[in-house]
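Final report, results section. Input specification for complex C-07:
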Amino acid sequence: MTEVRTYRRPMSIWWWTKKRSYFVFVMRELSSIFVAWFVVFLLLLVRAVGRGGAAYDDFLDWAASPGIVVLNFIAMGFLLLHTVTWFNLTPQAMAVRVHGRPVPPAVVIASQYVGLVVVSAFVYWLVTR
Amino acid sequence: MSDSLVRAAHDVLIVGGGGAGLRAAIAIAETNPQLDVAVISKVYPMRSHTVSAEGGAAGVIAADDTLDEHIYDTISGSDWLGDQDAIEAFAHEAPRELLQLEHWGCPWSRQPDGHIAVRAFGGMKKMRTWFAADKTGFHMLHTLFQTSLKYNEVTRYDEVFVTRLLVDDGRVHGAVAVGLMTGKIQAVTGKAVILCTGGCGKVFPFTTNANINTGDGMSLAYRAGAPLKDMEFVQYHPTGLPFTGILITEATRAEGGWLLNKDGYRYLQDYDLGKPSPTPELRSMELGPRDRLSQAFVHEVEKGRTSDSPWGPVVHLDLRHLGEQVIDTRLPFVRELCLKYERIDPVHELIPVRPVVHYMMGGVHTDIDGATPVAGLYAAGETACVSINGANRLGSNSLPELLVFGARAGRAAAEYASAARAAPAVIEAQAADEVRRLERDVMGREPGTERISTIRDDMQATMEEAAGIYRTGPAMAKGADALAELQQRLLKAGVADTSRSFNTELTAALELANMLDIGECILRSGLEREESRGAHQRLDFPDRDDRRFLIHHLVHRNPDETPRVAPLPVTITRWPPGERIYGR
Amino acid sequence: MPDSIRLEVTRYRPDTDSEPQRQEYDVPLRKEWTVLDGLNHVKNEVDTTLSFRWSCRMGICGSCGMNVDGEPKLTCATFLTDYAPGPVRVEPLANFPVVRDLVVDLFDFMERLPRVKPWIIRDDDVTEVDGEYLQTPEELDAYKQFSMCINCMLCYSACPVYGLDPTFIGPAAIALAERYDLDSRDHGARERLDVLIEHEGVWGCTFVGECTRVCPKHVDPAGAIQRYKLKAAKESVKAFLLPRGTR
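Structure output:
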């Protein structure tokens, strides 16, 4: 190392509150917890369905309790954040090429949203038919 | 680490880590891997000024081109002051060096079939300028720097400022240097030393050159007993941005850009540079040589045909007809610079430009292998004067020059160092003297009434006044007297910064002393040349005078520290002096 | 427009100061002046002891990176008028040890750079230079963006991962590795991957993306790192699934 008395500035544990972009990043990381929560919620739903009508009704009652509703609202917000942020980052992470030509980032992002809409529509159709 | 006077001993010591220095280092590592090479640079190598070169690097590669044509263009561009043996060697080796760089990864722009693309350039009769868009110097420097990292035998001293060469009995043995980080002053010995410290544009107020271009190597050599050659030849580039002096590359004109006066008239047609045509014609109009274009600007000012700007008269560079696509693929950096620093978009607007000090044709006198008259001391790149550039350098010859002569100096120094002995003990005494000088005379000086920046401003104003595009004997004599006075004033300017670490006031003081030496050499050499040739135009001697001045000027330093100018014949091989013809 | 603006400059003199301090200077506010012009005004006219690095003043040498109002910037390309009426905070680049005033220690980066082997690696050992390696404009475009890095260190200054863990090899070095990997003349991808899948390599990155946002040359180091992760993951899967010979 160098022999000068250099000064290393300490990094505050609140570094992520100092800049909007850092804050959004930490929220994006945090959103994974809520993604996990929705997975758990879904598994609980599946288990309730498997156990028959009564268990399913109990599950619905539990899901409608204020605490769970609030939690799910928050989770929904984070999931949207998760989706939007990761969709936006995809073109950076993957250099998509079609017939050797690079696909513009906007097209990559748009195609993900198209995919999302298609899958959602299919699920909606499956549930409501 | 110890505090000993001698920090380390190497076989070859390279001062300067730009294009020439790095090329030399690699050449040595490849010539003889047993040799221990060190590169000392006052900045990190990738900060060196090679990074700012834009337009390209000339080397014959096209099927319709010949070496003789490159040689002839260079000789006529030099106004017959270039040494023809050196120019022949240069033209022969340039393509190979550029290919070598290609093999090392330089992202040269390409033709659709994958072969190297070449563009036109000023004063060149054929398309032979290799380019990497308009960041050629940047890509070359980073390629060289990154490639140099693979050679473990190359030691680097980054941010270490050399203050003196150690010379005993006509042989160089190393240098004394200040480590900027620590402030420590120590000697680093080398059996051979290569100076690759670049140019000295900062002697002038308005220059394309970076802050670091203070001619350190020239001054080091001069004080160590090696003469400087052809110092009166200072190149003004015709197209710099006003205020900043940022370079707008000649490639803009090679791609088809026009120079317009305030009436929208392509004024170069009035100065024996050919007739305007819609597409660029080689060696004609905007593709004439830099000296003639900068001189034409002065005449336009005299005729009142330039526009006014807050920073003096300007003409305009018109790229609008090239279209966005050409500008974005061939000249993206120009667009970026104009948008950033002038807030104009060259796709739609005219670029205001004026001539700006750009390049030093002169430098440390060397032979064709980069050797100076001091045994073991070599020089290459802009610091050196071989000379291939004579009285005026052609655009895109400087980048291949630093490769060709960087490599040549490297190989020659390697050979010399293999046979040379280690530094004698007497060197330690010299190093101790230098440490005392720096600590007592420079650092220890009481901060007086004089300020370094004021003396620097005065020097720059003096040089602009005395050694501009057009010069006269009395103005140069007056300038030389003014510089002598500034030398005295510098002795009274103290360094207020007492800190050891990163004392940039100390380096500024040392750089200013270097620049005052160089300014004096420029003016003294210019006074002796009573003719007009290339970039040295004298109103009191308006014609070229081959009978008296088909010679180089060597500036030696007398024991009393005054300069002495001596003649040296120009080497003519196959091309007897003739008229420089452009556009007809 | 007011005719002056205040610079709040962080000073640190290792010989005398135990920690950095703030010093204020008023400098003329002119339309064409950058933050660097302001600092040079201070250096030349007001306080000759202020230390900072600069050289080309045209955004290509990479010397003059500093934190301006908390954002890493090239000070030669950052205009004072954009911060009017001020004050403007000028600090050394974040995440690096401070040597003196606005000068930071780049030792880590310089020492690490050779590790990613930023040079052309060939299978064939061509020593004689005969003709060029052909490279089409499309092949050039594939890596061109990553070859634009000027080593200004703004990305390191913006990267919280590097701030928290200085052993992280960092955005610019990885982008440079990707630059050579994508070069059609190079065969060294495997060697570089071996370096970059180490602990301090690409897996340190959590994709904050700030490196790309602050890059003055639009290099997109964040993209380079994510692509490396993809490459590394593919290699790991291949190594796991395929017998040795077919990899």
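The CA atoms of residues 11 and 35 of chain B lie 6 Å apart. The two ends of chain B are 66 Å apart (CA to CA). This concludes the modelling results for the funded period.
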